[in-house]
């Protein structure tokens, strides 16, 4: 844009060599729901100039910068950056053409200075030689410490200079600095401005800098004064002060605010104020020879139209390998710099799986049971029968009838086993005689009273007493034991073994659940924290897309998941002797797919939620319902039908069933119950990834 199209008649005209505009904003609006943050904003940044964007905190400066670099879409209006709209296919804004220094620095604390600059060099496509040369120059130029100094060990001023160095690394044509001097001592503040003045001397680099320290912006070539989402005035600092007969920029800014409040066009204290008439100056009743410091576009200005062919658009959409590789290396380097956290990630699933195998599904042990035995003879059948009870599970306490029942009522014992004084003779009659009286039947029976408040213990006691009686009968009657046995014979099982316990049922589902939820938690927290620290925004401004970010995280987490799965399988198969009759490869693939589903769901949470507390609540909120409804700790067949339909739609229900069929039945993909688990898991993976991508696109 030529100088004659700039804000007219400024007393400090722009040099002809620098008359083209680096940034043009025309009637830009940006809203968050009903809240207007930018309203009919017009702004021009001349090529090769420092543009100071001034205004109080909350006036919309950072939002405007995000719109300029293309990480936020405007609600209405038009923006061109270095000749094309931001995020236009084939245009490297965001990308290599723009250097961005956010207000919150956005540096990886685990990196050193060399790692930081190398990371951004990879994203910008610099060779190792080019990156090293620029690194050496910037360390000297910005007076940085040694390149192997960790970011976490640097002072605030040193970190700010490293952040500036990352923005300058690729020699960008446009440098955008958001509050670079906030919280910085005056000496460093002066040095930063000195650097900016040196950078723009060639006329090839343009700088836009935001600050609420109004007076320091007098060093800029052009200033724009913002308030409540409006640009009140734009021009060289001296012209702005002279126009208002002010000795300081701050005084001029206050006069502009008072003038706008007094006129009919009022940007009130709320950003929801009506749009400004961009053709009107804020200096009512001005003389014709007065400078105009208005903010409207030149009359009759035509907005350019841009187009890109399908090949350029395709390259713009497809992920770039160098960015994915740079992000992958970044994640792996961060892991290596945090060995404690990495070991915790590897060992946590092993610890959880081991606790489940040790603590869930086994038989209760050390259960105290009161025994009331009215037979006194050492050769009595009651003594022989009690000797067959499993002493590792049941601890027998001989008591009187009164003490035994008092003990159960007081919670000291889980049951009472009682024998009549004629138990041996009556039981012999029951076994030898075809017809006996009711008295003989009752006297020859073992009487058991149980505390059924704990069903698992009660079921165990019933089974142990039944097994003990069967062993007693076999011992006493030998080949004639069938006379008093139930006419039911359980043959060898088709699948599984006679000694299969509940732990065997729980283990496959527990492995899938642990893999899924660890991936959810790590992914959600990782992305939320990176967004909170401004790291994601900085990567996106450097040209990284949301798809590339997700792919890099997926690949890096796959390595973590692979180690976790290997350790879990080693423990459950070799240490806890969990049976596996099928293909171990199929089992591993299914567990990995569940881990990817967890990563994908974590991406959805992190895309939709901004703070870690809410992300944790979302992850924990779906943990227990999914654990209960997915048939992991209790069979799906026990769930009532309205909820069973919901259960079958969850990611782990069919997957758990599939893994059990692979491990315990030896089935392959030809069986529906196996391939159905893979199909449902792949479906959820696809859904979560698409949903996360859509949410990220909508939010940016």
Helical residue percent? 40-55%
Beta-strand content estimate:
5-15%
**Helical/strand content category:** alpha/beta
- Poorly predicted ranges (pLDDT <50, ≥5 residues)? 1-19, 264-294
Tertiary shape: elongated
> How many domain modules?
4
Strand order of the largest sheet: 5-6-7-3-8-9
Cα separation of the termini: 28 Å
- Rg over alpha carbons: 38 Å
- How many individual helices? 23
Biggest sheet descriptor: 6 strands, mixed
- Oligomeric state: single chain
Number of strands: 13
Q: Report the average pLDDT across residues.
A: 85
Notes on the protein architecture:
The chain is of the alpha/beta class. It contains 23 helices and 13 strands. A six-stranded mixed sheet has the order 5-6-7-3-8-9, sandwiched between helices. Strand 1 and strand 2 (35-46) form a beta hairpin. The radius of gyration is 38 Å and the shape is elongated.
Describe the SSE topology:
Elements: E1 21-32, E2 35-46, E3 50-54, H1 61-69, E4 76-81, E5 98-101, H2 113-123, H3 128-141, H4 156-168, E6 174-178, H5 186-199, E7 206-211, E8 222-227, E9 230-235, H6 237-243, H7 249-262, H8 310-317, H9 321-336, H10 339-359, E10 367-373, H11 381-387, E11 394-398, H12 401-409, E12 415-419, H13 423-432, H14 438-443, E13 447-450, H15 455-477, H16 502-532, H17 535-541, H18 546-575, H19 584-608, H20 612-629, H21 641-648, H22 653-665, H23 672-699
Parallel strand pairs: 3-7, 3-8, 5-6, 6-7, 10-11, 10-12
Antiparallel strand pairs: 1-2, 1-4, 8-9, 12-13
Helix pairs in contact: 2-3, 2-9, 9-18, 10-16, 10-18, 11-15, 16-18, 16-19, 16-20, 16-22, 18-19, 19-22, 19-23, 22-23
């Amino acid at each position: 844009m030529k100088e004659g199209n700039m804000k007219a008649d400024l007393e400090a005209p722009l040099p002809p060599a620098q008359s083209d505009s680096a940034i043009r904003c025309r009637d830009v609006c940006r809203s968050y729901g009903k809240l207007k943050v930018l309203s009919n904003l017009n702004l021009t940044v001349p090529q090769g100039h420092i543009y100071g964007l001034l205004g109080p905190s909350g006036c919309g400066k950072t939002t405007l910068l995000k719109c300029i670099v293309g990480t936020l879409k405007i609600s209405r209006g038009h923006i061109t950056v270095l000749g094309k709209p931001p995020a236009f296919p084939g245009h490297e804004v965001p990308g290599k053409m723009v250097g961005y220094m956010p207000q919150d620095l956005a540096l990886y604390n685990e990196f050193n200075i060399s790692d930081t600059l190398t990371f951004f060099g990879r994203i910008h496509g610099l060779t190792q030689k080019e990156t090293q040369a620029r690194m050496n120059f910037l360390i000297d130029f910005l007076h940085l410490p040694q390149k192997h100094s960790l970011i976490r060990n640097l002072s605030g001023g040193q970190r700010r200079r490293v952040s500036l160095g990352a923005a300058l690394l690729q020699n960008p044509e446009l440098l955008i600095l958001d509050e670079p001097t906030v919280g910085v001592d005056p000496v460093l503040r002066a040095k930063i401005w000195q650097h900016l003045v040196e950078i723009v001397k060639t006329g090839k680099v343009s700088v836009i800098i935001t600050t609420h320290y109004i007076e320091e912006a007098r060093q800029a070539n052009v200033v724009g004064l913002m308030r409540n989402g409006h640009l009140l005035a734009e021009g060289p600092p001296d012209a702005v002060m002279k126009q208002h007969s002010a000795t300081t920029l701050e005084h001029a800014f206050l006069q502009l605010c008072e003038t706008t409040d007094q006129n009919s066009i009022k940007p009130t204290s709320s950003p929801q104020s009506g749009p400004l008439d961009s053709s009107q100056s804020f200096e009512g009743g001005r003389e014709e020879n007065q400078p105009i410091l208005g903010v409207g576009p030149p009359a009759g200005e035509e907005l350019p139209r841009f187009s890109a062919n399908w090949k350029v658009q395709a390259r713009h959409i497809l992920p770039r390998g160098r960015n994915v590789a740079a992000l992958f290396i970044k994640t792996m380097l961060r892991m290596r710099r945090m060995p404690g956290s990495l070991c915790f990630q590897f060992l946590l699933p092993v610890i959880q799986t081991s606790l489940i195998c040790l603590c869930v599904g086994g038989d209760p042990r050390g259960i105290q049971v009161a025994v009331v035995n009215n037979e006194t003879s050492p050769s009595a059948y009651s003594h022989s029968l009690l000797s067959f009870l499993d002493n590792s599970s049941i601890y027998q306490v001989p008591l009187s009838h009164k003490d035994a029942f008092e003990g159960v009522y007081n919670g000291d014992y889980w049951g009472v086993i009682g024998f009549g004084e004629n138990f041996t003779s009556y039981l012999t009659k029951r076994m030898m005689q075809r017809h006996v009286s009711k008295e003989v039947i009752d006297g020859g029976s073992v009487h058991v009273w149980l505390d059924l408040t704990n069903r698992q213990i009660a079921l165990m006691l019933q089974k142990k007493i039944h097994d003990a009686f069967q062993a007693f009968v076999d011992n006493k009657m030998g080949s004639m034991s069938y006379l008093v046995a139930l006419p039911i014979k359980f043959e060898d099982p088709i699948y599984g073994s006679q000694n299969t316990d509940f732990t065997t049922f729980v283990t496959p589902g527990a492995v899938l659940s642990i893999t899924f939820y660890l991936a959810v938690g790590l992914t959600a927290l990782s992305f939320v924290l990176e967004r909170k620290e401004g790291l994601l925004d900085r990567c996106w401004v450097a040209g990284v897309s949301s798809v590339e970010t997700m792919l890099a995280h997926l690949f890096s987490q796959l390595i973590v998941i692979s180690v976790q799965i290997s350790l879990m399988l080693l423990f459950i198969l070799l240490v806890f002797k969990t049976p596996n009759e099928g293909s171990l490869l199929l089992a591993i693939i299914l567990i990995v797919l569940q881990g990817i589903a967890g990563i994908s769901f974590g991406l959805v949470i992190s895309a939709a939620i901004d703070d870690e507390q809410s992300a944790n609540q979302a992850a924990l909120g779906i943990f227990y319902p999914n654990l209960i409804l997915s048939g992991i700790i209790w069979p799906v067949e026990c769930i009532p039908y309205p909820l069973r339909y919901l259960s079958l739609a969850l990611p782990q229900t069919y997957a758990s069933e599939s893994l059990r069929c692979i491990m315990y039945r030896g089935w392959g993909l030809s069986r529906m119950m196996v391939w159905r688990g893979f199909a449902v898991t792949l479906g959820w993976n696809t859904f979560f990834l698409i949903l996360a991508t859509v949410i990220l696109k909508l939010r940016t």
